[in-house]
TrEMBL record:
Annotated source species: Paracoccus denitrificans (strain Pd 1222)
Protein origin, superkingdom: Bacteria
The protein's name: Circularly permuted ATP-grasp type 2 domain-containing protein
Database matches in PANTHER family: BLR5612 PROTEIN (PTHR34595), SLL1039 PROTEIN (PTHR34595:SF7)
Circularly permuted ATP-grasp type domain ranges (all copies): 70-446
One Pfam match: CP_ATPgrasp_2
Amino acid sequence: MTIYYNEMVDGGLVREPYAMLSDWIETMPAEIRQMKQAEAEALFRRIGITFAVYGEGGDPDRLIPFDMMPRVFLQGEWRRLERGIKQRARGLNAFLRDVYGRGEIVRAGRIPAPLVYRNAAYEKAVVGFVPPRGVFSHIVGIDIVRTGRDEFHVLEDNCRTPSGVSYMLENREIMMRMFPALFRNNRIEPVDQYPELLRRTLASVAPAKCEGEPTVVILTPGHYNSAYYEHSFLANLMGVELVEGSDLFVDGGFVYMRTTQGPKRVDVIYRRIDDQFLDPLCFRRDSMLGVPGLMDVWRSGGVSIASAPGAGVADDKAVYTFVPEMIRFYLGEEPILNNVQTWTLWKDDDYRYVMANLKDLVVKEVHGSGGYGMLIGPRATKAEIEAFAERIKADPGNYIAQPTLALSTSPTFVDEGVAPRHVDLRPFCLCGDRIELVPGGLTRVALREGSLVVNSSQGGGVKDTWVLSE
């Protein structure tokens, strides 16, 4: 039987981070809890916090489930996580600078060349170009799991357009509205400075040709995108324009935005669309979402794009296995946060081991996301395992495998009261002229009893993440 680390109760005693919440939980009547839960859902609906799930019929926009019970970290726990997250972001950006340049890590034999240069996320159009301050990935979302009191592991890296920061901010706002006494009586680090930090980070990577205060915009694919709420939410909080590709045009080596006062030059584009749709003259010719000529302007230093095209090669799940080596190679340091043990199925020995142990492992597509394209062996039927095995045999290099993790549990409000549910954490690390992050992140929770899948599209929810001040 797998034993899971309970973040609230250890050895029969309530752990220090949760001590101040113990009475709050025990003294809250069920009817008050239900009323507050309904109030939270009403606030989410009024604000418009939804996510989209397509292909299942009916209205794709759904409220994301919100758990009122916060997840809590001590300041010392957070400091270690913060150091490890910043270190990892530095290593990932060093890797991106290198593989689009001289490729020293490949030349040194520390990572296989095909894994980089034949990777679907590697963009040849980026080779030889170094963006301002050498930063390729400006917002790095690092998914972290806990397996013990002092045991934290990185599950995966998100270097392109990590989503979820709007939930982090709205979770805190709603908790402060509903339970102001909790915040008056406890020293909880704030997260509301994130939009200002993001704007400052983006402004700090404006191109050298920028004149005066940089003009920053958020480029969205439009309101049908699953994360559109977040795009508009951040634009509003940052005080910048939310634009679609049709709102921008290229002229004379610069990018301009159409406004009622006439064209306005744009210096930094925080893009929330995939590489292949950015510029129909460089990538997909049928793209209606991007800006024709954008890549030429970017390469000539007329505009900055965050995160840079091609950054996705750093968050490929097979490349992920080499991030500790990147940290050693580029930074000369030992990783503060370790990876989860991972088998890469393009290696013969790993392939044989995984195929012989599918029932005990979690297998993921290298480019999969959202909890799709994966097999959780211990929860799968014999028929599901056999079917997935055939998919692996057809393309072994498209998969990695990991052990079934003993994800920690956090106390969660359920119909019966409070029960442990599995959680992970996605902090958002900002990389510009400095590397910084707010104390907290998005905690995702597997609301279904026994489930290890925290993705909202797979029945997961979110909760506020507290870091206690000293």
